[in-house]
Design goal:
The protein is mainly alpha-helical. It has one domain. The protein contains eight helices and no strands. Helix 3 runs antiparallel to helix 4 and helix 5 packs across helix 7. The two termini are 31 Å apart.
Length: 209
């Protein structure tokens, strides 16, 4: 995940401050956000309508995580969306499968408890990255990005009612922080899934599904 060791060596990373390397890095992060939305977001929306258990989505997510982690270990990155500095796309795939599975299991078979955190991670975080790239031209944390994420995540949260709206706001705040090797692809889905499950247990009236 965020703390996974990468053995890659990328010449563009070493020369990241020249104009060509700078533009390449921006393009890479835009590509990653497109993948967030398409591979992570759209596929998460489809899950409740196609699958009855999370087994196959978890298998697919795990296989994808292994597939995109191998280039980091071999040093042969897919440079159009991977960077040497981190393996965050791997943690994204791992957490996508994990939250869908755990949400389904602990909610008694309701996929939306896992889908919603996955959507915050996919669409919300993607919009955050796009806004930050437009403003700062690099990967950095900014409250402008988090405001953009809130504008997307809060309406998405309406899927599960009032507490879904609140969880969208909380996800938008949590995304701003990273704790050492633990990146926002981990904190956003973990915090929001935990919150939704706790509320479902103690105050189910704040949720609708």
């Amino acid at each position: 995940m965020g703390g996974i060791r990468c053995n890659c060596f990328n010449e563009k990373t070493v020369h990241g401050f020249n104009e060509k390397g700078f533009e390449h890095t921006i393009a890479v992060y835009y590509n990653r956000k497109v993948i967030h939305m398409l591979a992570g977001g759209v596929s998460a929306i489809v899950v409740p309508f196609v699958y009855t258990t999370p087994i196959l989505p978890l298998v697919f997510a795990t296989l994808l995580a292994v597939f995109i982690y191998i280039p980091h270990r071999t040093g042969k990155l897919m440079n159009w969306f991977q960077v040497c500095e981190n393996c965050y796309e791997v943690s994204f795939a791992v957490m996508w499968g994990a939250v869908l599975t755990l949400g389904w299991f602990f909610s008694g078979g309701n996929f939306w408890f896992g889908v919603l955190p996955a959507l915050f991670m996919a669409f919300g975080d993607a919009i955050t990255g796009v806004v930050r790239n437009l403003i700062y031209k690099r990967r950095t944390k900014s409250w402008y990005g988090n405001l953009a994420m809130a504008s997307v995540s809060i309406p998405i949260g309406a899927i599960l009612g009032p507490m879904g709206l609140i969880s969208g706001l909380i996800a938008s705040v949590i995304e701003h922080f990273e704790f050492g090797p633990i990146d926002d692809n981990i904190t956003v889905p973990v915090v929001t899934l935990t919150l939704l499950l706790i509320v479902n247990y103690f105050l189910p009236g704040f949720l609708s599904f």
